[in-house]
Amino acid sequence: MSKHDDDHDLTPTKSTQSIAETFSPFREFAFVVIVCMAQFVTQANIGICLSPLTIVGNSFHITSPGVLAWFIAGYSLTVGTFILIVGRLGDVFGYRRMFLLGFLWLAVWSVVAGVSVYSNYVLFIFARVFQGLGCAMLLPNGLALLGATYRPGKKKDMIFALFGATAPNGAIVGAVFAALFSQLAWWPWTYWTMALVAVGCAAIGYLVVVPIPQDYSVEYDLSAQGIWQTLDIPGAVCGIAGLVLVNVAWNQAPIVGWETPYVYVLLIVGVLFIGAFFIVEFKFATQPLLPFEAFSSDVAYVLGCVACGWGCFGIWVYYIWRFLEEYRGVTPLLASAQFVPPGISGLIAAFTTGYLMSRVRASWIMFMSLTAFTVGAVFAAISPVDQTYWALTFVGLIITPWGMDMSFPAATLMLSNAVSRKHQGIAASLVTTIVNYSISLSLGFAGTVEVHVNNGGHTAEDVLKGYRGALYVAVGLGGLGMALSAFYTFRSYWAEREETKEHNVEKGEN
């Protein structure tokens, strides 16, 4: 790696001192805030689309639920799909550089999303997809900055918890401002304001985010052949193509039907590409995107539970919002106000998780988070239309953030501590890939069930039946995650018991 690279030109700190210990209190505060803004704006870009979804759809003369779902799914698709390769770019070219570039990229495509009002919904979806690429740059590199700046300990636990806590609050703030602009002014101002926020974050980040010293035990060859191998271009192409094609197939099927030939062709080709990705990674890649030797079965378990939980969440957040606006007749602004409690509940959950992570088994934390996701989905699925907000809906909105803010900090921290500094970008990428890709893919699962149980959606009762069917998919995903976490917890206790028996036997023989 070039010695004059601005992300790699600092003298490495001593192993006994974390980078954070060189900060002044103000610099550390500003650093943590601006890095947490990566999570904040990522989730805000879900809220700004979800809140005025009907208003934006009407401006494009779109009423099809399948097309409207693409406004959310297209964004989450690229956030989840491109994180792995962008995490590797951060490892090679510097986390700080990619982090700042992510804000600027997001700003450009936020402007395009607003301008699409003069064109059509295809340009809007296209802009949303490329917005997601900007956030794909922000999330892994922001997490890698935190992981490389702080050494393991209670302080790092709490900062990762704070990073996770910004998720529900980002979505809520985004939804509120989107509702204000859409109801009282003009919806494109939501995206133009997001562009201004992103540019401001890039400017502040340039001042307060420090370059992370390069691990000089790793030398990156920046020749054409070196870049090909270092970035694992064949693996990246196969992985991205596979994930995109599978996702497009599942999210397009509810719109055109599974009987349409290109839908299942895309699915089959996507699965083949994913298979090719694993073959490349295991057999041919000299520097694979996924360093499998760095991850244990515990990590695989965590990622599986996160996939179930956040898939459940993706369905829940989309359909509960549609339910509130269409069947309870609340405006986008009132719906945003009804989503304020999750922000407060999420903060409590995040800091509780930060406290528990060093005191409670990860398997118990994951089980509690999956329980929260599942219970929230159950309450949404069975809520009567004419019931007061303060009954099942309010309780569900209080419970669900505990799933978000218990699973995300625990998973990211476990992976950060499990790998070396040179793999911080990849470690951060795995969790955020699973989170965002699961949200997007789960909407395809739910949409498929919806169109098969709503009898064509010709009446309000049929549409509601479809919504409830989709929410039961969320319940199923959450329940599967609970079963996985319960099994793992049992297995962990059993393994410890057997290990203790073996130790006692060996001690007796000696």
DSSP helix count?
Answer: 18
For the secondary structure, the number of strands is 0
| SSE ordering | HHHHHHHHHHHHHHHHHH
Radius of gyration: 23 Å
Tell me the CATH topology: Growth Hormone, Chain: A
CATH superfamily: MFS general substrate transporter like domains
Q: What is the mean pLDDT?
A: 84
Briefly note the structural class of the backbone. Answer: mainly alpha
Report the top-level CATH class: Mainly Alpha
- What is the total number of structural domains? 1
Low-confidence stretches: 1-16
Could you characterize the architecture of this molecule?
By secondary structure, this protein is an all-alpha fold. It has helices spanning 25-50, 53-59, 65-81, 83-93, 95-115, 121-149, 154-184, 188-208, 224-230, 233-256, 261-284, 297-327, 332-338, 340-356, 362-382, 392-418, 424-453, 460-509. The protein is globular and about 75 Å long. The model is unreliable at 1-16 (pLDDT under 50).
